[in-house]
Amino acid sequence: MDRLYKKQVEEYLTNYGKLVFISGARQVGKTTILKQVIKPNPNSIYLNWDYLEDRNKILHKHTELFKNLRSTIFDKKPCLILDEIHKYKDWKNLVKGFYDKFGENIEFIITGSAKLNIYKKGSDSLMGRYISLTVHPLSVS
């Protein structure tokens, strides 16, 4: 199941050139999917909002972060993954700013719980900049 989502995320990054939003309930495998996506790309950076050091990088050291992502040359575009970023109250404007400035040169994956669905409102500042993927729990009957 995770491989199917991995393939879909890779396809979205390759073919659409937009932010990829991965949402779903807790414990459905979003982080596992991310680890599969970034494993073949050594120029990926994974940051988790729940981890204080990562949160500090996102809010206060992002200039250095993007400089490091852009300065490394690999076959694949660098990828920045922001996990659980929706817990930051102004996350949409932060992500919009990052994407508008660096989106041509860097891939972005944003993940979060089902609450991430708040981005679907029509007046959203991210409108037209993302493609979404919802991860569903696997049920065994």
From TrEMBL:
Domain annotation AAA: ranges: 18-140
One protein family per Pfam: AAA_14
InterPro entries reported for this sequence: AAA_14, P-loop_NTPase
SUPFAM superfamilies associated with the record: P-loop containing nucleoside triphosphate hydrolases
Domain of life per record: Bacteria
Gene3D superfamilies reported in the protein's UniProt record: P-loop containing nucleotide triphosphate hydrolases
Protein name in the entry: Archaeal ATPase family protein
